[in-house]
Design goal:
Length: 432
């Protein structure tokens, strides 16, 4: 990891420090994803088979997971892992159920009631990555809020293994949404299938889930197509920013950095600290711990584009963090809650030495599908509300119209929209 002193950099150099790696290849990504969408639109399932052979190295005739494969998954997953899935699912449901939006109604004038009601999105598409490691935790994070929201049709895509099967732990986690349909499809072609629909894969109303830069770009392009398809958020390569003071444990900080670096070569990790000694100690720990990791090659590629940044103080570090808007922000500082009010841009915040980001990845209960690439400036992490839509309702009696109608008439004429005004006036005249 490269070491830099923030306060000796000019603006251009500071921008370079905070640049995400994927931004440099966005043009190539865009063209590649466009080609995949065009092929899936033209050739449907045949294109999906070709892409699965090309990218996943397996020839599949049937993409959908059948009852036999679901049943076999139980025997293939150890009881310990099954118990952990159940334990994590319980916490995730507890957290998400507590945050469900409430319907409400209010009389804004005598005889005039306005309401806000919730309806589930009818068909949702969930993407669970498995490019370099299967992620049953992501299946939990997607399927549980989808079920709580009441979504009628839930479609889940996950890349096949080399033997043509889906990861059994992912299948067990996916069944947190009873009736879920699982398809063995990965990458941008899976997103294209759920966005466009094919004879086998149903078209979805909204797409959810993280992925690599290709998946992220595919979701963006899907959202730009005609027809109203929505996506949860820009959720691309993983990233973490750690703010550490002199009292932090360098072994903990290094472990947090590596936990995100091992996700993939395009992940990014940053450390901001006001202590030269902490910076040096973390660098030493990163090297020592990296050598022990089975995924050291992947993590090393990510670390080559990551930074150890020396700052003036913790207040400056938080300002830089808000500018970067990280997916994950870890405050490895003394009295972390003192600084919490200053944080305005982050997908999820982890407070103190004993709250590793990995806890949120699996079983703290909060959702790990979070905005990346700076999108945390305006987007939130996944919730039950992400799988629902709110509909407003108005109900006016003659009294209500008499009370509010003249206001509407005045504003309509002020805007030069006479037909709007007349739509109210004709009723007021009849009610008089």
């Amino acid at each position: 990891m490269k070491r830099v002193d923030w306060n000796v950099l000019d603006d251009a150099a500071r921008m370079a420090v905070l640049q995400r790696p994927v931004q440099a290849v966005s043009d190539a990504l865009r063209e590649g994803v466009q080609a995949i969408f065009a092929e899936v639109a033209m050739r449907g399932d045949a294109a999906l088979r070709d892409y699965t052979q090309q990218f996943d190295g397996v020839a599949l005739q049937d993409f959908e997971v059948g009852a036999a494969e679901f049943s076999a998954a139980v025997a293939q997953v150890s009881p310990t892992v099954q118990a952990a899935i159940a334990e994590a699912a319980g916490r995730i449901e507890t957290f998400h159920r507590a945050g469900m939006a409430s319907v409400y109604a209010v009389d804004t004038a005598p005889g005039l009631r306005c309401e806000r009601i919730q309806r589930p999105i009818p068909r949702v598409g969930l993407y669970v990555p498995a490019g370099s490691a299967p992620l049953p935790s992501t299946a939990l994070m997607l399927s549980i809020p989808a079920r709580l929201a009441g979504c009628k049709d839930i479609v889940l895509c996950t890349p096949p293994r080399k033997d043509g099967s889906a990861d059994p732990a992912v299948l067990l986690a996916a069944q947190q949404a009873p009736g879920v349909r699982v398809f063995k499809l990965g990458g941008a072609q899976a997103i294209a299938a759920m966005a466009l629909g094919t004879p086998v894969v149903p078209a979805c109303d909204k797409l959810f889930g993280p992925g690599n830069a290709w998946v992220d770009e595919a979701k963006r392009q899907a959202a730009q197509r005609p027809g109203g398809l929505a996506i949860d958020m820009p959720a691309g390569p993983s990233e973490v920013l750690v703010i550490a003071d002199a009292g932090a444990n360098p072994a903990f900080v290094a472990a947090d950095l590596l936990s995100q670096a091992e996700h993939g070569p395009d992940s990014q990790v940053l450390l901001l600290t006001d202590s030269v000694d902490m910076l040096d100690a973390v660098a030493t720990q990163v090297d020592a711990q990296l050598a022990q990791l089975p995924r050291a090659d992947i993590a090393a590629q990510s670390l080559s584009r990551s930074r150890l940044v020396l700052v003036k103080d913790i207040a400056q570090a938080i300002k830089i963090s808000n500018r970067y808007a990280p997916e994950h922000l870890i405050l490895s500082v003394r009295e972390p809650r003192v600084w919490l009010d200053m944080i305005c841009n982050a997908g999820s915040v982890f407070l103190g030495d004993y709250t590793p980001e990995a806890l949120g990845d699996y079983c703290s209960g909060s959702n790990h599908v979070l905005p990346t690439g700076g999108a945390a400036r305006a987007w939130s992490g996944l919730s039950v509300g992400s799988f629902q839509k709110a509909i407003s309702v108005q109900d006016a009696s003659r009294t209500g119209l008499a009370n509010a109608g003249p206001c509407a008439v005045t504003l309509a004429y002020a805007e030069g929209l006479q037909a709007h005004a007349r739509a109210v006036e004709v009723r007021l005249e009849q009610a008089a």
